[in-house]
Design brief:
353 residues, 16 helices, 68% helix, globular
Length: 353
């Protein structure tokens, strides 16, 4: 399906424009809907490496560039996997979600995916540093990188700001006056880094209705069929059972969610949104404000994008997979290979049977 990395969307414009455009032109608006000079320069160089004047381009160069993009996504997933406490459960959920809601990975398969590499790496780094309790000592470095990345892709900066706002609220009582001032400066500068390009480099403005439609389409283009809707429904139910509620309360919530799912299905509303609601309720109950704020930010990225790309909903699907597995001790036991002494191994277990 993906080989040999066929072109679509902006890739056609890049192939047509690269032979005649120079470096300076990449510092202005290019093929993007927002001002992203850093990403445009790197992508422009990548297309020059491929040499689009020759068709077909070098297979070796294609493999190296696509392998780099794919490898960076794998690195981000490795960080998220190492951040998970229930890794078997997370691996299972991530495998299902990644296989069913695959549309968001479309940018993995052409050079334009370079735009989204820092976004997925920012997400993975935030979850890893939070899980390892090392973010507090690295927040200034994170902030500096995130603000610079506003000129690569504003989604990376937005995810950082969302997470950092929640982290600031989570640790509010522990801060000195100087730390409060630093946090407010980081939030202000980060917001300006996102808003600045929009103000100084305005493009055609999308109406609220258009953005709302784009928001829904981003989720709908990930939830492409009834099978995907059923999977989203089951993930929502799994999230409820992972909250550690009483059986009666869990059952009542699941019945309510089943009713809402039927209504959403009949109204053609993506059930992915119901799964996200369950994830947000779980985070509210756990009072994990950092992850809650990160999830909300990731969930509204499709509204900010406004054009309905499935890629915009990818990041919140990843976060939702991580949160669904969080604290799911029952699922971890079910997915455990063996409760025997690890020295016996699986083959010894089979011989005993």
């Amino acid at each position: 399906m993906v080989a040999p990395f066929a072109s679509h969307r902006e890739t056609y414009s890049w192939l047509a424009g690269v032979p005649t455009e120079n470096f300076i032109q990449q510092l202005s608006f290019g093929q993007s809907s927002t001002y992203r000079p850093l990403a445009q320069v790197v992508t422009w160089l990548a297309f020059h490496i491929l040499d689009p004047r020759v068709f077909p381009t070098s297979t070796v160069r294609q493999v190296l560039l696509q392998g780099l993009i794919y490898g960076m996504f794998l690195l981000a997933w490795w960080l998220i996997f190492n951040a998970a406490t229930q890794r078997r459960t997370f691996a299972f959920i991530a495998c299902v979600a990644g296989g069913v809601f695959f549309s968001g990975y479309v940018h993995l398969f052409h050079i334009y995916g370079l735009f989204y590499v820092p976004v997925i790496l920012m997400l993975g780094s935030l979850l890893y540093s939070y899980a390892s309790d090392t973010f507090d000592g690295k927040d200034t470095w994170f902030a500096t990188i995130a603000i610079v990345l506003a000129f690569w892709h504003p989604f990376a900066t937005a995810l950082f700001l969302g997470f950092y706002f929640g982290f600031y609220m989570e640790t509010f009582a522990e801060h000195s006056k100087a730390q409060h001032m630093r946090a407010l400066v980081i939030l202000l500068v980060g917001a300006m880094a996102i808003a600045g390009p929009v103000i100084f480099f305005p493009r055609t403005q999308l109406s609220f209705q258009t953005r709302l439609l784009g928001f829904l389409v981003s989720y709908k283009t990930n939830e492409l069929n009834r099978i995907a809707s059923i999977v989203a429904f089951l993930l929502a139910q799994m999230t409820v059972f992972s909250m550690g509620l009483s059986r009666r309360l869990s059952f009542a919530i699941c019945v309510c969610m089943a009713t809402l799912s039927a209504v959403c299905f009949l109204k053609n509303i993506p059930l992915l949104l119901l799964w996200l609601c369950a994830v947000l309720i779980k985070l509210l109950r756990l009072r994990l404000w950092s992850l809650l704020s990160l999830t909300v930010t990731a969930a509204v990225l499709p509204f900010g994008g406004g054009i309905g790309s499935p890629m915009y909903a990818l990041f919140v699907i990843i976060v939702a997979s991580y949160i669904t597995a969080f604290g799911s001790s029952g699922g971890e036991k079910v997915l455990s290979v063996s409760s025997l002494d690890s020295s016996q191994g699986l083959f010894a277990y089979r011989r005993q049977l």
